[in-house]
Amino acid sequence: MEFLAEYGMFLAKAVTVLVVVALIIGIAASAGHKDKPSGLKITKLNDKLKKLKDQLQESVLDKKELKELKKEEKAEAKKQAKAKKSDDESEAKKKKVFVLDFNGDIKASQGERLKNEISALLTIASPEDEVVVKVESGGGMVHQYGLASSQLDRIKSHNIPLTVCVDKVAASGGYMMAVVADKIVAAPFAILGSIGVVAQVPNFNRLLKKNDVDFEIHTAGEYKRTLTMFGENTDKAREKFQEDLKDVHELFKTFVSDHRPAVDVDKVANGDIWYGQRALDVSLIDEIKTSDQYLQDKCEDCDVYTITTPKRKALGQRLGLAAQNAVSAGVEKTIEKMSFQKWYM
């Protein structure tokens, strides 16, 4: 019995060690690796809508009505096939519409995924096709959203029509992305605009002085550091910082003006926002319509494909460390928001 008891304790210790090792590996994997893309997922929206339609018909129609409807649809399909066969022009390949999603956070984190998806579709898309990007973002870091906008501009450089759909919000950096498009379509109460630049700089210098804490910062170059979180800021540093903000704002205004000449930039570039119809009134958008309706309309005479990038969860997340990841992400966001080196649009 004593032997069995000791053996049981040994097994318990061994299991405990294995669990601890697994957790350590999981934490390391979670901290060291982000979610990895697992390839593109392509869905033909036409087929998806047809399947939904068929399911609804089977649910609400009785057998006689359903049979009659299928008979009519079959006859119509034969009629269309015959018309196509006799018309050489209609034998040409059907126009394709490629749909991408961009849900932007403060760092435009989906920029890398967007780049890869655009690189893929540019290998097969032609000027006869169309790319639709569903943008949802309230903006963020200037350089990150500038890069995301440049990715969309790659589509334009290939002479492929580009449409941006906004269902909820494309403000500031989000609008910087939208403005690249040939056409901007927005839902009735979508938020557009916010053409401005902001930087928030907390300063703890008085708190440090109160507690007899010295803080030193050494730079080479007069403007290597203007405002600081812990040192004593000067009026000259504030003036330089404000000048830099104004310069970025002017670049933003020029960017909007170059891509949408119809917009009265001096009127709209005051940081204000516009909802749906109001945005249409000041030419920030071209059409009021939800992305769902826009794409459903396209399905009538185009082949519509949605392109997404599913993510393979990292080992840490698979071991149940999602909570840790969430805390880490929250801390990271707080640090980013406090950082005086970042400007947001």
Whole-number mean pLDDT: 82
Count of helix runs: 13
Strand-pairing-aware structural class: alpha/beta
CATH uppermost class? Alpha Beta
- Taken from the alpha-carbon principal axes, the silhouette is extended
Strand/helix succession: HEEHHEHEHEEHEEHHHEHEHEEHH
Major beta sheet summary: 7 strands, mixed
Query: How much helicity do the residues have?
Result: 40-55%
Give the CA-CA distance, first to last residue: 72 Å
Given as residue ranges, the uncertain stretches (5+ residues, pLDDT < 50) are 32-37, 335-341
Strand content: 5-15%
Textual characterization of the structure:
The chain has a single domain (36-70, 96-199, 232-338), classed as 2-enoyl-CoA Hydratase, Chain A, domain 1. It contains 13 helices and twelve strands. The chain has helices at 2-32, 45-60, 63-86, 111-121, 142-157, 173-178, 205-210, 235-259, 265-268, 276-281, 291-298, 315-318, 322-338; strands at residues 36-37, 41-44, 96-103, 130-136, 162-166, 169-171, 183-186, 191-193, 273-275, 287-288, 303-308, 311-312. The strands form three sheets. It has a seven-stranded mixed beta sheet, with helices on both faces. The chain is 50% helix and 14% strand. Mean pLDDT is 82; it is low at 32-37 and 335-341. α4 (111-121) runs parallel beside α5 (142-157). It is α/β, with parallel strands linked by helices and 345 residues long.
